[in-house]
Design goal:
Blueprint (H helix, E strand, L loop, with lengths): L1 E3 L3 E4 L4 E7 L7 E7 L13 E7 L6 H15 L3 E2 L9 E8 L2 E11 L4 E7 L5 H12 L2 E2 L8 H5 L4 E3 L2
Antiparallel strand pairs: 1-2, 1-11, 2-10, 3-4, 4-5, 5-9, 6-7, 7-8, 8-9
Length: 166
């Protein structure tokens, strides 16, 4: 499947399904989510859910550090734990927080487009190592597009998507 927006183009793995959630209050604000076609992880009965967002800024300007710091504050407020990025994947990290009687574990991927914005991909709780690997492969094939003007958060939320079956 080919997925295209104003900001990126992606040839997605065949078993990923993407969908856009539009907010009722303002149709121009959207969130992009993905799951597997069968909604489950490979061979598991857990639902895979991820989201893709955009944040204005660049790695050179310290946007990764700002995102990481924000997540540290969020996790501390929930009495959770944040994993340090490692040498192999310096722009990824996970968070663990208690939710009712279980734990919520999220994995974050941050990728610099080179055009004044970063891509923030979040795997929601229940993901497997193979899901992380599949998303890394997906992101490695992503082609970023430039914005006609300097992007800001509001502009990055105004995204038009084109889905094409390959």
């Amino acid at each position: 499947m080919k997925l295209e927006s104003d900001l990126f183009e992606l040839e997605a793995k065949s078993d990923f399904t993407f969908y856009v959630h539009e907010f009722k209050e303002n149709k121009s604000n959207r969130s992009l989510y993905f799951t597997r076609d069968n909604k489950f992880h490979d061979g598991q009965q857990e639902i895979l859910l991820g989201s893709i967002g955009f944040v204005a800024g660049t790695f050179e300007d310290g946007i990764f550090e700002s995102i990481y710091e924000f997540k540290q504050i969020e996790v501390a407020a929930l009495e959770g734990f944040i994993e340090e990025p490692n040498d192999l994947f310096p722009f990824e990290f996970s968070t663990i927080c208690r939710s009712d009687s279980s734990f919520e574990v999220h994995h974050y991927f941050v990728r610099d487009s080179g055009y004044g914005y970063v891509l923030l991909v979040t795997l929601k709780s229940g993901f497997l190592d193979s899901d992380v690997d599949d998303v890394r492969v997906m992101l490695s094939g992503m082609k970023y597009k430039s914005m006609p003007t300097s992007p800001n958060f509001a502009e990055l939320m105004l995204i038009h998507f084109l889905f094409e079956e390959s």
